[in-house]
Amino acid sequence: MKVLQFTIPVPHDKSVIAEKVSLPYHYPYLHRHKEIQLTWIQQGEGTLIAGNNMHDYSAGDLFLIGANLPHVFKSNPEYFAPNANKQIEALTIFFNPEGALAPLFNLPELKPSLIFMQQHQQGFKLPHSVVDKVSQIMIALQKASGPDQLIQFFHLLKGLTNIKSKLDPLSTYGNLPGITENEGIRIGNIYNYIMQHYSEPITLEDVAKVAYMTPESFCRYFKKHTGHTFISFLNEIRINEACKKLIAHKFESINTVAYKCGFKSITNFNRVFKCVIGNSPRGYLDSYNNNLISLNRAAS
Question: Among the listed ranges 103-107, 176-180, 199-203, 267-271, which one has the minimum average pLDDT value?
Fold first, then answer.
């Protein structure tokens, strides 16, 4: 089956694309493209699904998405509510080292940048310590034109290549199979359903119906295209939401968070939380609060 990749509109007079979006919510379907993508979230909250992993995002976060890495920025459910009056804003830079920029990346001076991109094909979240510097270069690149835009692009490459922190990949599954246009929409609809109903009892049969498949076919299809079983994906969504509620401190007890995130048993919640996060809910919350205290002291 031919892979119909999401196509980034490339103006005839540009080799680096800067795109600023202000929309009610992010493009909601799983997709991939041949360009490397650098996205700075300026407004909005949600979950980034990249390959087989998911990551919270909020204003100020900056992500590099590798070429051909299936991904979707899923805005939180409240962004899709009628009369939501909410908006997302993001600035994204697209570039393809194997396209019009290939001769540039073949220069010896840019070999470190090319190697850096090849080593991080699964993408990464930029450390907060470099976000201000890199985002300012992105703004300058967006405003520039002609040779000045390429000069800013060189600054951007230098800023990325000089990152010394350990960069954890966004995805750990390796190469997922190609996503056709119809499959991207189908998987996006599955994600939408799970993320909108995670707090309710959801059965395999329920989700299979959304995909217009039998439960057996759905299990094979979902595992093949996401690297997850249905249950592992549902558990990660629920634990991801539980973490958000815990650190927001808008709950009466940890038990309340467990039940609001779709767990019927606190024992099962604790077990799944430990499996996904590597810590207990109480330990996770204590660690978060201690880190917050340390950061506040350092700022003082």
Answer: 176-180
CB 169 within 8 A of CB 64: no
**CB of 8 within 8 A of CB of 94?**
yes
Distance CA 297, CA 293 (A): 6
Closest by CA to 70, choosing from 176, 172, 185, is 176
Q: 8 pLDDT band (50/70/90 cuts)? A: low
**Number of domains, the chain:** 2
CA distance 70 to 50: 6
Same domain membership, residue 189 and residue 68: no
Give mean pLDDT, residues 124-134: 96
Radius of gyration of the chain (CA): 20
What's the CATH code of the domain at 274? 1.10.10.60
Structural domain of residue 257, as residue ranges? Answer: 181-293
- Supply 275's token pair: 């499996």
Q: How far is CA 298 from CA 165, 291, 292, in A?
A: 19, 11, 10
Residues 122 and 246 in one domain: no
Q: Does the structure show a pLDDT above 50 at 1? A: no
Is residue 8 one of the residues assigned to a domain?
Answer: no
On the 0-12 / 13-18 / 19+ scale of CB atoms within 10 A, 260 is middle
Q: Is 171 part of a structural domain of the chain?
A: no
Torsion angle, alpha carbons of 125, 128, 131, 133, to 10: -140
Residue 284 has pLDDT above 60, yes or no: yes
Burial of 243: CB neighbours in 10 Å, binned 0-12, 13-18, 19+: buried
pLDDT of 115 over the 80 cut: yes
Query: Taking 50 as the threshold, does the pLDDT of residue 21 lie above it?
Result: yes
Average pLDDT, the chain: 88
Clarify whether residues 109 and 245 are in a common domain.
no
